[in-house]
Amino acid sequence: SPSPAGADPGGVPGRGEGVSIPRGPPGAPPAPDRDFYCVKWIRWKGERTPVVTQSENGPCPLLAIINVLLLRWKVKLPPQKEVITAEELMAHLGNCILATQPRDTSEGLQLNFQQNISDTMTVLPKLSTGLDVNVRFTGVSDFEYTPECIVFDLLNIPLYHGWLVDPQSPEQVQAVGKLSYNQLVEKIITCKQASDSSLVGEGLVAEQFLESTASQLTFHGLCELTARAREGELGVFFRNNHFSTIIKHKGHLYLLVTDQGFLQEEGVVWESLHSVDGDSCFCDTDFHLSHAPGTEGATAAPLDHRLQQRQVDQDYMVALSLQQQQGQDPPSVLSDLELARQLQHEEYQQHHPHPHPAP
Predict the structure, then answer these.
(1) Quick check: is 235 in a domain?
(2) pLDDT tens per residue across span 30-82
(3) 154 assigned to some structural domain
(4) Segment Disordered: which positions (predicted)?
(5) 93 domain residue, yes or no
């Protein structure tokens, strides 16, 4: 079963450690201070722009938020900056939050702003470890409202997920309802202990939903996310306790590549998000297909598959866009299109079996 949608602080850079290198046992090499992040400079919309990378795949929402602000040019770094600390990132973030003060000087608005600032400052230390985010399965912007959400609201950064129930599965819709992840887990436990067989059955359906969607991204969720995100919009995408910077470009979704392993690879900036099974393509800053270093020959067959799959997705998204422009009801449109695309995908898979990766 999937891990809770809360934060997992393990192995993630912390805050408040300063910049000193912690001492190890006698004779041991000094441990690197994980409070440092490497800065990658890219050419973004014609301007040399920094993005912050990370060496470990932790939850770190701080980086996802900061990278949105960097790509919006709300945060500027010195042109020679190569390394930055969590403390510096927090200072930049704090300045951006304080700059959101409303121009309206009415007492009510100012008091509300002061309260929001106060709530936000208590949340900030969690940003470099992980936020307690609890998804609802009803919509890509639906989360249980917690103080953590105020940070995104104040900075006008949309927070998304793609873990939705398929509307064509009425049993799952009934079992999951409008519950959050935490509430659904509680319901499953309660239903298992119930004497009413219908409740027991509903609990099993809910449990099966969580197990079958352990990747925390469903096909319906991906379609909804593509439809709901605005063109050119930068946001934060939550999945499997990880926060990524996301953008919609020409109708397609991309995640910012923040893996420090690509620090020197200027041609690897974005990773496409067009599949629930992890099939993706790297792209450069202009969203043109790029090859990961050293993989040109090794992944020729999978790349053919990816391009074919991408074409299927593009055809699907165009159809989705046309349907929505005609003003049809999105949920039913999505479901019909999903069914057609799923059949097309299965047919393609039958004729093009996915190559087994090398051990």
Answers:
(1) yes
(2) 334 457 899 999 999 999 999 999 987 666 899 999 999 999 999 999 999 99
(3) yes
(4) 1-31, 323-359
(5) yes
